[in-house]
Amino acid sequence: MDISVVVPLYNEAESLPELEAWIRRVMDANGFSYEIIFVNDGSTDQSWDVIKQLRQNNPAVKGVCFRRNYGKSPALNTGFGMAQGDVVITMDADLQDSPDEIPELYRMITRNGFDLVSGWKQKRYDPLSKTIPTKLFNATARKVSGIKNLHDFNCGLKAYRQKVVKRIEVYGDMHRYIPYLAKNAGFTRIGEKVVHHQARKYGKTKFGLDRFVNGYLDLATLWFTNKFGVKPMHFFGLLGSLMFIIGFLAVIAVGAIKLYNMYHGNQYTLVTNSPYFYIALTTMILGTQLFLTGFIGELIVRNSHRRNDYEIEEVLGEKKTNDKDGE
Questions:
Q1: Residue 45 to residue 1: CA distance in whole angstroms
Q2: Domain that holds residue 248
Q3: I need a surface site. Which of 40, 74, 110, 306 has the fewest CB within 10 A?
């Protein structure tokens, strides 16, 4: 099969017939073999009934219906698990993404050798209250992820080589950072294509401004787990050691100042009367706790069954072992 189109949706019953007809028209015009996977994320309207009707008219239509609303990331992850096409295309169900972009996205994956191609809605039909935070968000994502050539991480219109979607896990709200997840999994050939952005035709957006706050928190989580997920002691241990040493030196300095004043007959106070003593003591305690956090993290990582789960592209000259004698 050439293409799998994964469409996560929530209360988009009005747009689904038009979207399915548009995708089918593009596929037939280019001679692609395809499937359309609609993932109904707990819609409360007639979306699932519409999908079942579309399935009767087009066998290429497939569907999954969640019992309740889980979010876009679980919907995409489920769709990725079902996808059988050599190239997987994702798009939103609100008709803001154009299926006419599919042939070029497919060509960029199959002929240009990209692992992932992300759309860039260079001209957007969104209010400034949405576009300005989006620009700041994307600038931060480029800086943290190191993927300098992407301008729109959160664009729903993307194309993937099949092995990419089978090797990444999209959870929580990590759909915003699929290119970063792919890069961390070893798929570094990431491209971008300017795509046409259309104004929403039906319904209203399902996302509020809270997604930008959550997005930054998710980005920090992803950065930390990628950099220190298998070596937490390198972060907590180093930070804890530095804090302990600084606090210890500060305690010595407070004591040394008192001894100096005593020796020279100057006025002095008890060490415990100095606020710097308690600040230094608190710093030592926090440093010890951070160090122990890193130690506990190392114990957890070492007992994880995925501690040696590496991304292997190819193996040459593999030698089979004998389970009985280990030879």
A1: 32
A2: 233-302
A3: 306
